[in-house]
Every structure is written in structure tokens, then in C-alpha cells.
Amino acid sequence: MAAVLVAGVCAVMAPTVPRPADAAVPSELALGTGSNESGSLGDGTTTERDAPVRTRLLGGVALTEESGGDSHTLGLTSDGRVLAWGRNANGQLGDGTTAMRTTPAPVRLPGGVTAIRIAAGFDHSLAVTSDGRVLAWGRNTNGQLGDGTTEDRTAPVFVRLPPGVTVTQVAAGSYHSLALTSDGRVLAWGDDTLGELGDGRRARGGTPVFVHLPDGVTASGLAAGPGGQSFAVTSAGRLLAWGRNDIGQLGDGTTEDRTTPVYAALPTEDTVTRVAAGHDHALALTSDGRVLVWGANKSGQLGPGRGSIQKEPVQTDLPTGATVAQIAVGSAHSLALTTDGRVLAWGANFAGQIGDGAVTTRSSPAVMPLPEAAGPATGVAANSYGSLVLARPRGTTPRP
After folding, report:
1. Are 23 and 382 in contact (CB under 8 A)?
2. Which of 150, 198, 263, 318 is the most buried (most CB within 10 A)?
3. CATH of domain 3-393
4. What is the pTM assigned to this prediction?
5. Is 194 left (phi over 0), alpha (psi -120 to 50) or beta?
6. Region (Disordered): which ranges (predicted)?
7. How many CB atoms lie within 10 A of CB 120?
8. Are strands 49-54 and 272-277 parallel, antiparallel or unpaired?
9. Based on the number of CB atoms within 10 Å of its own CB, is 271 exposed (0-12), middle (13-18) or buried (19 or more)?
10. Of 359, 167, 173, 135, which is closest to residue 249 (Cα–Cα)?
């Protein structure tokens, strides 16, 4: 394999990384509800919505994934392009400007580059390329773009990965970023004030460092919370956590910040496949389609019957018969996609992020009503105060 020079760093060209197995079915219908003051719902307005409205995708565009930042949204198209809309004060839309966009606009990826995964942080953005590199753009005050500088970027730049490393997945918090390598290791960069980088140092990193996973442990999934938390799902279905933990956000039964990974106290016999992190709470999806919750609960985001703080993961009560395939969280609300294409939502609702036509907090998961034009949902994501849904148009068959 030939070596090439990328952004001043010698990197080894990797074979093409396959499309992720958990990628959503391509959808030509994207919906959003909740806060929209910066256009993050993509409907061409800045009007707050208390029920899902349609994102204005161009005809023929199909999305396989969405990711929500604080007030901006990313969409990954079925042909490997990245679209972005919403707030852009730090260049997080990646279009070369700092102009707000109320409808999806293309991110300026380098020529010939396609993306396979995306992640939106508070006001920065990440994408994994088809050859296993990572692009970053937007706010960079804490080195969260991983390019060795603290300069904001209005167009994507390559993260300075260690030589020979290829990446399959990324996650973005407020001021730090995570990446999963093809051999199951975890990289981290950006702010480390609370131990977010997981290398035991509390030293801000403008380029990626390896997280100190336990010996012999490999990871299969990631999440980065906007409150300064980091998570990794292990290949054995356990959950590692590090970073901020003042109200039990890491799920280890304590309120001690952790500078290296510790195991979350999962219920006996439970294994998990996904994790999602909000500002002060988190969700994990079990291998049999249940949802575990922990952290803060002041807005009902953990579900019914929970106290104000939950330091260890517990199962939340879902509607009878519901089996979950995907999870997502906003700042203080929670989302779950069921295997039959329904969207469950609960928690904070002051901006309409639950999508039930009201602005009243909901502590029990309930089905989000989708527009008549929407068939089964295929994906969920969240902004801080908004919810994002991918769905098949009613009456259509799934695209391959």
C-alpha cells in the first residue's frame, strides 16, 4: 500500500471501508420537530415546531443517516455526500461560509472523497471517509477537529490520525471527539478537562490519542455526550465510560469523574449493542431490544418511576410489545425507534421536541405521530432541543 501526504502527516492509504452494517435504509423523507431558531429542522423556516415537519431535501436525494448537533444537523446521502443545515457561526456546516442555512446544503468534501459515517458535535462536525480517514470542520477552540490547531474551519480538514490507522465510526461531544478504529481501538481528541479523552492525563489534545481501554478489550460502538462524557460498547456487549460523572452520567454507581474507562454497572446478564449520550443522561440498547437509562431525570428523560438521579443503568418501561432497534438522545429528551418503524419519545418538551403537538414534559415513552405522508420510520437522531426522523414515504418499497 502506498503512503501519501495528507495535511502534513504521512498516512497509509487503506482499503475501502465497507458500508456500516447498522446504516439505515436509504430514505427520501426526513422529518424534524422542536427548536428551529437556526433552521436545524431544514424546512426552510426558523419556526419552532411541536409536530414533525418535512426537511426540504432535493428531489431524488436519499439519506442513510442523520446526526444532530446543538443547533445544526448533518445528513449522509446514499451516494456518500454530506448535507448540512442550521447554525453555522463556527463553520459547522462545512460549506466554506458562516452563513446559517434553513435547508440542506452540500458540505465541501475534498474532491473524489465520499463519506460513510457522520457525527455532529455541539458546533463541530465529523465524517468518516470510505477509505477510513476522518474529516472535521467547525469550532476548534479545544482542538476538537484534531488537525493540530485551534483554528475554526469552515470546510473539512483531515484529522491527523496515527500512521496506519483506519476509522469506521466517529462520535462528537461539545468540545471533544472520538473515533473507533478498524481493529477495535478508540481514539480521542479535544478537551480533556473532565477526563473525556480517557488516557489518564487531563491534558487537552489537538491530535488523536489512544484511549486506555482495559487489556484485551476491543470496542464496537461509541458515544460522546455534550456534557463531557465518553462511552464505548465493547465487542463482548459491555459498556465502558469515562469523563464527567457528577450526577451519575457514567452509570458506574458513583459520582466521580473518570480519566480512564470504567465499566458501567449493567444489570446482570444484559449485553448492549448501542449507546447514546445526552447532556446529563444516557441510554443503552440491549441485545434483545430493551432500553437501559441512567443519569439525570429532572425532565422525565429516564422514563416513569425514576428519581431525580439514577447512578446505574436500569430498564425503562416501553409500551407493551415494543422492541427497539435504534436510540437517540437530545439534551434532556430521549428517542427510540422500534423494529416495526414507530418512534417513541419522552422527556423535555418545552420546544416541541417530543413531537406530540404539545409542549408539556412527558415522562413515559409514547409514539410520536408522523405526518400522513410518512410510512415506517427507519432512523432517529436528535439536536439538543429537537428530534430528527428518517422514514419511508408511505406506499413505497425500501430502496436497496
Report:
1. no
2. 198
3. 2.130.10.30
4. 0.93
5. alpha
6. 30-50
7. 29
8. unpaired
9. middle
10. 173
Closest residue by Cα to residue 105 from 90, 128, 87, 123 = 87
CB neighbour list of residue 249: distance below 8 Å, 6 or more residues apart = 225, 227, 229, 241, 243, 277, 280, 281, 282, 294, 295, 296
Residue labelled with grid coordinates 487531563: 202
To which residue does cell 422500534 refer? 338
Rounded Cα distance, 123 and 126, in Å:
11
Whether residue 16 is predicted with pLDDT greater than 70 in this model: the reply is no
Say how far residue 77 (Cα) sits from the centre of its chain.
16
Within 8 A by CB and 6+ apart from 316, the residues are: 291, 292, 293, 302, 303, 304, 306, 365
Closest CA to 380 of 340, 331, 345: 345
Using one digit for the tens of pLDDT, what is the confidence trace for 378-396? Answer: 999 999 999 999 999 987 7
What is the grid cell recorded at 296?
439525570
